[in-house]
Design goal:
339 residues, 6 strands
Length: 339
């Protein structure tokens, strides 16, 4: 009887030791780093489950965990095994346990697209078209609908005009997002930012609405190569508007010329009347001439207090500012005519 008890105890101990060894082996396999030398994208298709995902990891060479070990881990030790479809970034040093933490929480990799200040909607559309991580779905009909029903009164007069009504910024998205969704976010971001900044604007600005502030911001964006000059350029334009002087800014003329502009602005261009030729019209043009970023919008609503009424490019991206026409003409001779 005693011998039988000893045998049974021995068998139980062997079983426990075996089980413990099995658990340790499983744990070691699933916590061993995946076979990655660099970051790699890994996509889980819709309808896939945890075991198929493990098989996919093996098929792509990222894992060598045996199928049986994977099944044991998934059934008894993995916790949540409800993987979510999407594209994930796997990095060197991550194990299968780490990977499944991403897969079950749905922490997809975020791609990025930079929609740059100073460009037009047409140029942005081309940027989105060239981004292979997006689904490009933009045409004239779609673009005409993106800014509809935003519920913002100051935007109601621009439903047929989509230039400049998106906020320049970097936008993040998951693989397969529609390009139109990125632009919708950019429009919503623009409306929210301009509406908020308008409430905090400087007093006595010659701007009747947030939309006029956006128009001015787009001009500042096109005139500024040196970020530190934004507030000063805004101050000059505000001074000119307050004095009922024409803005006389070349970027508006170029925008009014359209696709036929060959890069050389002439006297004829400056004298030809278009809705955007600020050498001919007084006040602001009817719409923005480019996409503006937050800094230019802030500058338009918080211009630097200055007595300057003129500025001329020095040729290095910066400008010479002047308070009198005589000083301005001297600066033109110094920085422009000599070139």
């Amino acid at each position: 009887m005693k011998r039988l008890i000893v045998v049974l105890i021995s068998l139980v101990l062997l079983a426990v030791i075996g089980a413990a060894s099995g658990v340790i082996y499983v744990s070691e396999k699933v916590t061993t780093p995946l076979k990655l030398e660099t970051e790699m994208l890994f996509t889980i298709d819709k309808g896939s489950n945890a075991y198929r995902t493990v098989k996919h990891l093996r098929k792509t060479g990222m894992s060598d965990v045996p199928p049986f070990i994977a099944k044991v881990w998934l059934k008894f030790f993995a916790g949540s095994t409800s993987v979510k479809s999407g594209t994930y970034m796997l990095r060197p040093g991550q194990s299968m346990v780490d990977a499944f933490a991403l897969f079950t929480q749905g922490e997809e990799h975020l791609f990025a697209v930079s929609l740059v200040e100073g460009l037009t909607l047409k140029q942005w559309v081309e940027t989105l078209r060239q981004n292979s991580d997006l689904v490009f779905d933009l045409d004239e009909e779609v673009l005409g609908q993106l800014t509809q029903d935003n519920g913002v009164e100051w935007c109601c007069n621009i439903m047929q005009q989509t230039e400049g009504v998106y906020l320049a910024d970097t936008y993040f998205f998951t693989l397969g997002t529609k390009a139109s969704e990125v632009l919708k976010r950019a429009h919503r971001a623009l409306v929210d930012f301009v509406s908020s900044e308008w409430e905090e604007r400087a007093i006595d600005l010659p701007l009747a609405s947030p939309y006029e502030a956006l128009i001015l911001a787009s001009i500042i964006e096109k005139e500024t190569a040196v970020p530190e000059e934004r507030d000063m350029i805004a101050g000059v334009f505000v001074n000119r508007l307050n004095k009922n002087m024409r803005l006389q800014t070349d970027p508006t003329v170029i925008y009014g010329i359209g696709p036929s502009f060959d890069g050389n602005i002439t006297r004829k261009h400056l004298r030809t009347a278009t809705p955007y030729n600020t050498y001919v019209i007084k006040g602001l043009p009817p719409t923005p001439i480019a996409m503006a970023g937050k800094a230019a919008i802030k500058a338009a609503l918080h211009p630097l207090a200055t007595d300057a009424l003129y500025f001329v490019a020095r040729g290095d991206g910066s400008h010479q500012f002047s308070s009198t026409l005589a000083d301005h003409n001297a600066a033109v001779r110094k920085y422009q005519l000599k070139r």
